[in-house]
Amino acid sequence: MRGPNLNDDERIKIVTILFESIVKEKPKHGRIKELADQFQVDRKTIRNLWKKAKKQKSDGVRIDVRSLIPGKSCIVPSRCPVEEIENVELSLRSTVKKLAAAIHCKPTTVSRWIRKGEIKSHTSSIHPDLTRDNKFLRLHFVMSKIYLDRLLNCIKFKDMSNVIHIDEKWFNMTKASQRYYLVKEEEVPYRSCKSKRFIVKVMFIAAVSRPTYAENGELLFDGKIGIFPFTYEEPAKRNSKNRVAGTMVTKPIESVNKVVIKDYVINKIIPAIKTKWPQSASKNIIIQQDNAKPHISGNGADFVAAATSDGFNIQLKQQPAMSPDLNVLDLGFFRSIQSLQSSKPAKTVDELVKNVQEAYENQHANCLNDVWLSLQACMVEIMKRKGHNDYRLPHLQKAAARRAGTLPRDLIVSEDLVAECMTYLLTIAKDTDLEDIMTDLGLQM
């Protein structure tokens, strides 16, 4: 009894078998009858498929034996032409329509491949352009963050619980483009502004350390030192519908220079550290910052006086240049609090400042600890890439590991990788610092 029409997968399978059984440019004797019996179709159907595929191959075109029956019930998507897509210029692969035109197919077909996972969407970001010296300093910096755990006999990252990362970020009153989900008959919201340049924004400086936990998992210190807005208050010069003249109005500091940064570090961040720092923790603290021009050095008399009082010994150090991936704020914590802040409306600078500070305080300490673990994972990738930044941010499945009780405090580093990186560094520059690191790690010179 004749079976149903062949679907596209069956057609492809039949043609594949026929090509694999070729003897003297023809399918093996009896193979067509076997396939006809196997798929319950007439031998003429198998012969027609063979003729069609053979002609397409001889013409030098892609073999396509899909069914041409309109409205067929067994629609099976065509195979994704992986090699053909790989040969298309990236500039022609930025949208579904462009890619479809480049490989001569329909956009709906490309969309189907995307849904099936045969094609993936990727957003390419611009990375800092690193010189040879940049890569060397990045790798050297990472190597200084590992140590030999003699109890467990493995190389691990240092706890870094005495390190505080600081950085600045702009927070906007609203986004220039905002997505909303509306019901069918709901009126589309209208937003206006004279120019995108007039959207109010405020710069903040934040300081975070690594959260600490007791052995039973109890949170002892959330790691959040503080987030401070660069704002000032002045009396309103004239009346308006919102307030009368003379009312104190909060305004953002437009130019954040070295004088302003020095004032905030000495009079806001350091006092906050001394207030919130755990009593049982070491008071030898390192503040890590990037190399922005307004940042101060740790050698100024005013900074040293503030940093060494009350029993504290606070040092200010620079992270390697062009390395935002070595600061937990740039790596992910700023983005996490921005997602919370942007969900609350703000019409004034005071409301924006309140929203940002509440988002900072409400973000769970586990989120901050996760970013510190991600920092260690990034350091491992930097070691693998010999200081380069051409890597993808690794996923450690931290939430699942936390639920299972297997989330590590610090990541273990392969001894072979460490030895490989040390050998590479020593071929570039021979210095005593590297020799000291190798001795501490128990590696042979």
Automatic annotation (TrEMBL):
- Which InterPro entries has this protein been placed in? DUF7769 (IPR056671), RNaseH_sf (IPR036397)
Organism listed in the record: Saponaria officinalis
> Where is the DUF7769 domain positioned along the sequence?
6-59
Q: What is the name listed in the Swiss-Prot or TrEMBL entry for this protein?
A: DUF7769 domain-containing protein
Q: Which PANTHER family match?
A: OS01G0541250 PROTEIN
Can you name one GO molecular function term for this protein? nucleic acid binding
